[in-house]
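<tokenise_the_fold>
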Amino acid sequence: MARSFRRKSSSGDDASEAHGVDPAGDAEGSVESGSRASRRKPEKAPERGPGAWLKEIATIVVIALVLSFLIKTFLFRAFFIPSGSMEETLEIDDRIFVNQLVPQPFDLQRGDIVVFQDAAGWLPPQEELQLSWLKEALIFIGLAPDQSQQHLVKRVIGLPGDAVTCCDAEGRITVNGEPLDEPYLFPGANPSDLPFDVVVPEGSVWVMGDHRNASADSRANQDKPGEGFVDIDDIEGRAAVIAWPLNRIGFLGNHPDVFDGVPDAAGS
């Protein structure tokens, strides 16, 4: 049990000190001094004018804009979904955030949903969108999703060295000989109506949309530069979150269970 110790006063003087009375002077003088002190009015803090408040608000806004730009440049970037090639995982007009730490410094995984630049010309020529200066500024600093028509979003099916084939006797796509059961496919869609048999070259990936009947993906672009493969250097990042609309907010997974049984590529 804790015990407290108190030093005993050895004299009246000590007792006076303990009660805050100056033993060298009289008590009346001390009380009088205290009364004078108590009558002093507290000093008022200097009033802040509207200019000070405006300066503070402006500083906060600038810091927020700089942070938003840094996040958009190095961490997360917003994109707008214009088509149904990834239904029902992604719907038209969804807004997504893309993790730009993939593929570097973190590695790509089979099943990742990625946004990439259309460096090989998969998309038909389109007129450049005419955006207001405000919209362009918001996109630049990361407060609005990128609505440019030169990006695509697909799911990674094959990594470098993988042998990807359509299809086995049950109509399933195989990766390194392992058939895939793909729960993310659009309801009623076949894994692929277009046969193919490819080996993914180093530095590239094989991608497909979840709505296979409405996706012009790697299968449909084997006659283009790159032969349907997407250069990893053209990948902006991995789609991580649906941010809009509110009723669809959620994280985007890569369905690791679908690819768990896939063996490593030959020679890897």
Remarks:
- The first strand starts at residue 76 and ends at 80.
